[in-house]
Structures
1.
Amino acid sequence: MELLKERIKDDGKLVSKEILKVDSFLNHQIDPRLMQEIGREFANRFKEEEISKILTIEASGIAVALMVGLELDVPVVFAKKKKASTMDSKVYTGEVKSFTKNRVYNISVDSTYINNEDKILIIDDFLAMGNASQGLLEIVNKAKAELAGIGIVIEKGFQPGGKLLREQGIKVESLAIIDSLADNEINFL
């Protein structure tokens, strides 16, 4: 997606050779028009999948997932990093290790919102090591739902997450795949 790549080049900030900061348009301040285009692109890539729900993780995935849900006209469910007291007693859980925060989260979704009749599309902002996707896959599997695929806004192709998911036979669609962040330069595949 050329619009996204241009925005990453223009407004992305390199923190290190492994970390790209896109807070100005994706995961702190959000550009609604860009999110709308991203939502359309994912909807186009997954339109044949008969998706019944979008699943993401709080907080950065919600804006993207909402736009995809709007385009596909399906509900968006997000996994919470802390179980709320209002959640049903039965929840599906998964474990996620945050690459950037170096912390393990137990994420959860109330069983009311995902079940074995659902065909789920997972949406997230970044894919690096694949930990968030694996945690969301745990939830999909525990709910005995069907996985349609995974949509990622920015994939770090130089880290193993995308490869590991694809080796499992999962359809992964990434809108921008970064080959390298070395030498203070953003290079795409």
2.
Amino acid sequence: MRGYFGIGVERISKSMNLGSLQRSANAFGASFFFTVAANLKQREVRLSDTSSAAEHLPVYHFPDIEALTLPRHCRLVGVELTDDAIDLPSFQHPVAAAYVLGPERGSLSPEMQARCDVVVKIPTEFCINVALAGALVMYDRVRVMGRFPPRPASSLVRPDPLEPHVHGAQKIRSKTPDSSSS
């Protein structure tokens, strides 16, 4: 899969949810994890993060939205159930993205939503658990941006395997025009 992604949460307070989300981030191959204005107990985070994600990917803790720093060209994608958000199944994931989810029993703050480049929503009737919502977003990213064979017409048929990737011939690009062609 090309590109990279990170995932994080704003104002989360349930350590077990954060640990579950970190574990999922590790499983889906996130490049980094972050929190903004979190109120957590690290011991409880470790209880639910059985993969020890913090040992395998960088975890950044920002005290507030103003301190949130992302890599250059990384798009901030809010995940929130709002009327004007893009439905996740119709969303084109950026190559470089950081997904941010709101707290339990709350929403992304208006300031965070304003900071986002785009806001997407999972098409559900009501809000779902933050760890589950994050896992669904990461699954959708991997499904859309990964290299998988198309689904077969029947649910009883296995998909045809993909052809192996073949690299083309080496291309050498120069910054100056070839002087021998004049």
